[in-house]
Amino acid sequence: MKLYWHHWFMIVIGGWTLLSPWILGFYELNLAVWNALIVGCVIILVTLWNALPRA
């Protein structure tokens, strides 16, 4: 699996989304925290899936 710069960029964006409730201070809003966690995980997983070599 070869990761190009745009893959790394999207992984960083996903990581930022995962950590944003605590960085931006809205960690007490449960629905917003769950939304950030799910969206961040989806971004990272789709990026890694996209980076897999094609047969």
Mean model confidence by pLDDT: 95
Distance between the termini: 12 Å
Tally of structural domains: 1
Shape category: elongated
Biggest sheet features:
none
> Helix content range of the residues, please?
over 70%
Q: How big a fraction of the residues is strand?
A: under 5%
What is the succession of H and E elements?
A: HH
**From the helix content, strand content and strand pairing, which structural class follows?**
mainly alpha
Number of strands: 0
* Rg: 13 Å
Low-confidence stretches: none
Q: So how many helices?
A: 2
Structural overview:
The protein is mainly α and about 55 residues long.
Topology:
Layout: H1 5-24, H2 30-51
Summary tags:
2 helices, 0% strand, mainly alpha, 55 residues
Short description:
The chain is mainly α. The protein is built from two helices and no strands.
